[in-house]
Design goal:
single chain, 859 residues, mainly beta, Immunoglobulin-like, 5 domains, 24-stranded antiparallel beta barrel, 9-stranded mixed β-sheet, 45 strands, 8% helix
């Protein structure tokens, strides 16, 4: 099969690119190339098999011990109950040295036990030199430069789904869900998932000791009388970057949970009624513009609502938000978008980030669609008549409520259902002459629904079904996407075959519109364990498929082929701790021709990457890229046109110093040069510096500088057949300052200021010809220059005054300045932006955690 796949790739590359993808490939026969590639694969395969299984170990087992004695969580481990606990020690290093045992004096002793209320985990992380403990107050799930110890449970023992609980030397908590990731067989950690549990830490002359109590409401498990759970414990020492686990881990083997130990004989524990309420009360004061004192510019809002978590049974949980309030989330990093595709923003709303691992399967869910931009936002401006003006046109649809049900049965079936409703949105338009007000609907009442089934099997394998649906009121169309996914590994967990197939259906409600049915699939096969890894894949999407209504989707009509070949050295040798390199590439063609354009070829690429960590814990990397000439069917922004882009080469490097030191820095450089194509070039330079004054206070500055002295791209459409391009100078600076001060491990203050400026100065104008070439355009009176500035401040004070309960005070300032003057003087742009109208927002929000079991005990 591998030979067939390789032969297909060679045939495709030779016939489509005529040798430009693989230099001088036409001088070799397919048989010669096949022999060389097959020999390379065979040699690397034999080496990788040796290293994959040389260190195979039998999983360790820890007996479950029950206690009936009380435990005070103070970090001291002096309660008599700890004498009932099972001892877990003799940890094994997996980075940087695989299989090395802990040194005496820097070793780890931990204890695990349980009772009817929950699980107790405690121990001591010994340090010969207490100054070697890395500690920083960074906030919950804030990581920072901390040593830590963590407990990982696989309660259903399926080696695919885990719960993680970590504590740092200063007593800060992290927790996460570990699940498989379609694009990373080692899985992913979802740190947005939060549970409520207790912990305490004490630093002493021998290191640091800790205690953790996990109530059963903070974890999901079956109601079997006797249970065995997957178990592992991990400790990390940041100043040496040594990481240890109780059950040995080999990083060359696919998966972390596949290498877990066992906690055996857990008996007579019952999943409790999980009912948790998070009522909130918030007050907002908004002022725009800030440079006036008129009362009418102030708006105030008082609101309250409720978030709810209800355990439907031992496996499934209902999460609901009633009258949601997301006004305190971090501001978006807005940019000037010169591409033909939509900018994808991060999600900061906790309801849509926490516990969404099931919903992210298949990459069909982009949560920013819910409560996002109204679908007729810009149509409202087209509807404004000459004697009217736009008074108000909200850029976001208002979310009424949202709920989700998720969980996994003991037989490995994961089920997820998410539903959200947004209310109808209107633009307000005023008649200038009569003062009459009218409404224009920019978004109908809309229901968003997502349904997921995910069945796990042996050998880290699974199959999934996902359905997304958007139902709109009025005459607007409805959208549905259905997808089936699979991922299968062999018995040795070394080889993987995975893929998906999906269909989209758009149903229109007007008689003059035709419904649309589309199709897409991906197929991938590769080797995922061992030092040598490879992958080949094909993706196909027809001309009618789209998942954009509830997902992030850029374009359809393509058939892509990709390959990846990589090798990794995971143990220290010579000057490095770890060393990785790979070569990868791809070819993209149209699935169906567009208009009168005969060529289906879109683009191709080949990349080389090398990354390494030195013995002094410095990371660095370098990369190179070659893109042959391309046919860009999207840059013209008009269907049926193509832009022929010239071939180019790119190269760059990056470096990160040891982040455990007080001062750390990371930098990246990237340069792309076009070959014999309008002398185009572009550079990306980024620099990030961080200084930690002490464990409480740190400052970080990030700056990105993207000069494009000669860039070329779409400018505007003058008429249907007159598409204007320009050679332009583009100067972009992204400047971010972060300050953090933590008063305690429960209280902190953060300050984030960002200024972004992008200036487009058009120099030479061209018309796009039908064949994709450009011809000089003269006689234009407008330069179409752009000067866009965004300025944001997010200042947040947070206090966790009780477990799961928070007081947040947030100040947000937003400024925007845009003009057609191509002023590239940074500080002048910055000053003009500060002098523009600023939108200031001050809010106070109290979230109180109520747990049914705690209330019941108190009553």
């Amino acid at each position: 099969m591998l030979k067939t796949v390789l032969l297909t790739f060679i045939n495709t590359y030779q016939t489509t690119i005529t040798g430009s993808f693989v230099p001088q490939a036409q001088n070799y026969t397919k048989t010669t190339i096949m022999k060389k590639l097959f020999l390379l694969f065979l040699v690397q395969f034999c080496i990788s098999v040796h290293y994959s299984f040389a260190q195979a170990t039998t999983p360790r087992s820890l007996p479950a011990k029950r206690t009936n004695k009380p435990v005070i969580i103070d970090g001291k481990l002096n309660d008599l109950a700890w004498q009932d606990a099972a001892k877990a020690d003799d940890y094994t290093e997996f980075r940087p040295v695989i299989g090395r045992k802990e040194e005496k004096g820097n070793h780890t002793e931990t204890f695990l036990m349980y009772d009817d209320a929950g699980i107790y985990f405690g121990g001591t992380c010994f340090e010969r030199n207490v100054d070697s403990i890395a500690k920083e107050l960074a906030g919950r799930d804030g990581f920072g430069m901390n040593d830590y110890i963590g407990l990982i449970f696989d309660t259903y023992n399926d080696k695919l789904n885990g719960f993680e609980y970590f504590v740092t030397p200063l007593g800060e908590q992290w927790d996460a869900k570990m699940t498989p990731n379609q694009n990373d067989n080692n899985g992913g950690e979802d740190f947005s998932w939060n549970a409520v549990w207790k912990s305490a830490v004490v630093i002493h002359d021998k290191g640091w000791s800790f205690e953790m109590f996990l109530p059963y409401s903070a974890i999901r498990f079956s109601k079997d009388k006797v249970q065995n759970w997957g178990l592992n414990i991990t400790r990390r020492r940041r100043k040496t970057e040594q990481q240890y686990t109780w059950n040995a881990i080999n990083p060359n083997v696919n998966g972390f949970l596949t290498q877990e130990g066992q906690w055996t004989g857990i008996s007579d524990i019952k999943p409790p009624l999980r009912l948790q309420l998070f009522p909130y009360f918030s007050v907002y004061a908004n002022h725009f513009p800030s440079n006036t004192t008129e009362q009418k510019n102030w708006t105030n809002q008082v609101s309250g609502g409720l978030d709810l978590k209800l355990g439907i049974n031992q496996a499934f949980t209902l999460d609901a938000t009633l009258i949601p309030d997301f006004g305190q989330v971090q501001s978006d990093n807005k940019v000037l978008n010169l591409t033909p595709f939509e900018v994808k923003f991060n999600e900061y709303r906790s309801f849509f980030t926490e516990g969404t691992e099931l919903f992210n399967k298949g990459n069909l869910f982009y949560s920013r669609r819910i409560g996002g931009t109204p679908i007729h936002l810009y149509d409202a401006y087209d509807d404004v008549k000459s004697n009217e003006r736009m008074l108000k046109n909200p850029t976001e649809a208002k979310l009424i409520n949202a709920s989700k049900i998720s969980g996994r049965t003991k037989n490995g079936l994961g089920v997820g259902v998410l539903n959200a409703i947004t209310q109808a949105q209107y633009a307000t338009i005023e008649n200038i002459e009569t003062g009459e007000i009218r409404k224009f609907q920019t978004n109908p009442t809309t229901n968003y629904n997502l349904f997921v089934l995910d069945q796990t099997f042996k050998h880290n394998s699974s199959v999934s079904f996902i359905n997304t649906n958007v139902t709109r009121g009025g005459n607007d169309y409805n959208a549905n996407v259905s997808a089936a996914l699979f991922s299968f590994n062999d018995k040795k967990n070394t080889y993987n075959i995975s893929g998906n197939a999906s269909t989209s259906y758009l149903k229109y409600k007007t008689p003059d519109s035709e419904n649309s049915l589309g199709y897409s699939h991906t197929l991938s096969v590769g080797k995922t364990s061992g030092r040598f890894n490879f992958n080949v894949s094909q993706s196909l999407t027809d001309t009618k498929y789209t998942s954009n209504d509830l997902g992030y989707f850029t374009n359809n009509n393509f058939i892509n082929h990709n390959f990846y070949i990589g090798y990794r050295y995971t143990e220290p040798k010579g000057w490095y701790n770890r060393l990785f390199f790979n070569i990868n590439g791809g070819l993209s063609n149209l699935y169906a021709p567009i208009g009168d354009i005969k060529s289906k070829y879109q683009n191709a690429r080949i990349n080389f990457n090398l990354n390494a960590q030195t013995k002094k814990l410095i990371w660095f990397g370098m990369f190179a890229n070659f893109n042959p000439a391309q046919n860009d069917f999207y840059e013209p922004r008009t269907m049926g046109h193509v832009y022929k882009r010239g071939k180019s080469v790119a190269f760059g490097s990056w470096i990160e110093t040891n982040a455990a030191k007080k001062y750390s820095v990371s930098a990246e450089f990237f340069e792309r040069i076009f070959l014999n194509f309008y002398n185009l070039s572009g550079t990306d330079i980024s620099l990030s510096q961080k200084y930690r004054f002490n464990s409480k206070f740190s400052i970080e500055h990030q700056i990105g500088f993207m000069p494009r002295p000669r860039s070329l791209g779409y400018t505007t459409t003058l008429s249907e057949n007159d598409i204007l391009f320009a050679v332009r100078k583009v100067s972009t600076v992204d400047n971010v300052l972060n300050l953090k001060y933590s008063f305690t491990n429960k209280m902190g203050l953060t300050f984030r200021a960002r200024h972004y400026v992008s200036v487009v100065d058009n120099k030479e104008f061209y018309s796009l010809n039908k064949d994709g070439s450009l011809s000089t355009k003269t006689g234009l009176t407008e330069k179409y220059n752009r000067n866009v500035n965004y300025f944001n401040i997010d200042m947040v004070y947070t206090w966790q005054f009780a477990p799961g309960s928070f007081l947040n005070v947030v100040w947000k300032d937003a400024g925007f300045m845009s003009s057609d003057i191509a002023n590239t003087r940074y500080f002048e742009n910055f000053q003009n932006t500060l002098q523009s109208d600023q939108n200031n927002n001050l809010s106070i929000k109290v979230i109180y955690f109520l747990d049914y079991l705690q209330l019941k005990q108190k009553m």
